[in-house]
Amino acid sequence: MSEHNLQVTPLNEQHRALGALMAPFGGWDMPIQYEGIIAEHRWCRQQAALFDICHMGEFLFKGDLVAAGLENLFTFSVTAIPVGRSKYGFLLNEQGGIIDDLIVFRMADDQVMIVVNAATAPNDFNVIQSRLSGGTFTDITAQTAKLDLQGPKSREVLVDLLGGWVAEIPYFRFVQQTVLGAPAMVSRTGYTGELGYEIFLPAEKVVELWNTLLVDPRVKPAGLGARDVLRLEVGYSLYGSDIDATTTPLEADLGMFVHMDKQFVGKQALLQQQGQQLKKVRVAFKVSSRRTPRHGFAIFDNEQQIGEVTSGVFSPMLGCGIGLGYVEPAYAAPGTALTIRQDRSVMEAAVCSTPFYTEGSVRR
Fold first, then answer.
1. What is the pLDDT of residue 4?
2. Coil, helix or strand for 262?
3. pLDDT surpassing 90 at residue 242
4. Taking the chain, what is the end-to-end CA distance rounded to the nearest angstrom?
5. What is the Cα–Cα distance from 78 to 72, expressed in whole angstroms?
6. Is the pLDDT of residue 285 over 90?
7. Which domains does the chain have, with CATH numbers?
8. Among 13, 14, 18, 346, whose CB has the most other CB atoms within 10 angstroms?
């Protein structure tokens, strides 16, 4: 996509004024780094990093969740989510492939907000709308901004700015409050493995909140480069790299987010897949050196290719290369030796469990 066709967040000028390296991501012009990926990663693990996540899509549904068909859209029960809580799961196609991974926020008995990935948002909206038979379904992405404040100091930063109510929000719960005089939603969720919050507020207020937070010496801006390292260190999948419409939750080792005791599009395909030998499975692996595996690198057992890397980075916390990829099921057991190759680059690795990094503050 040409840089002239990229969408921009309301913070685009702020990023450029801070000297951010900008690049396309999911059809948006986004900051990759400011000070540097490693420095921003370290700041998030130790202090509080501020991320512009305004590119994510937000949809609002109002109506009877069951009668309108919303209850049968996702791999989890929406009606079972208490008001004030959120749930992670999937929107699937008929073949069980992942159209998108998303989070649903139960805002009221008859109202939910659905947060989806940027690149998939237009298709997600059309798919969901086509499967609904009632209610009011609205794309509120343009008028909604989203900031993520992540890191062990994030709670005290927001308590000092917004009040003590922030400290009372449990993990994967949210509150609807007033922030800078505007209606907002503050959720204790994130994508880094650290204590953190996602703040949804009107787009016209996000520059003010961004600038206000950056006045605090405990807060620094961080780009998508650091975010990718952070999420991979805790083993989170990235849509478009580790999961996509050709991959099922069972293949992606994400079956825990699929409730087979309810109806949803793609269930029959998953039931059939449960009774068969999977052709591929997602694994996590550590490289025996500081070398970095990359998306698309081949995975071998001796001279036989058995899979492919989907995500890989150098982990500052572990001091080695780490990654996710898909292999034939016979090679998925923890401890299995793997060889990763790309041209003349050869890395020895071993299958391991996730999270790679276990010392995060996410549940503090």
1. 67
2. coil
3. yes
4. 41
5. 8
6. yes
7. 3-53+143-233 (3.30.1360.120), 57-139 (3.30.70.1400), 277-364 (2.40.30.110)
8. 14
